[in-house]
Amino acid sequence: METVALHTRLRExxxxxxxxIHASIPLELDGALREAGVHSWRIxxxxxxxxxxxxxxxxxxxxxxxxxxxxxxxxxxQMAELLEVEDDYSGTEPDVRxxxxxx
Length: 103
Hints:
The protein has 103 residues and is α+β, with helices and mostly antiparallel strands. Helix content is 36%, strand content 24%. The protein has 4 helices and 3 strands, in the order E-H-H-E-E-H-H.
């Protein structure tokens, strides 16, 4: 299993919308994430900054599976309205690298 950290940023003034929408994600999306091998996906927000911690069997495979999934496509369109940089699924590598951990 892989643990992947991600960072995204909200558009200014969209914090409450993001929190409201994430209060309950669609059941179809929940199922798609689990089918894609996601065991856990946690998101922390500090102002407009979002920090994700994903535990997944295979990050690249998960991204490929979700790229055109009918539950994920409308979700990503909704997120594109809230995020400063839209995730277009063109990259497969996370942009946050582990630098240090307490052994």
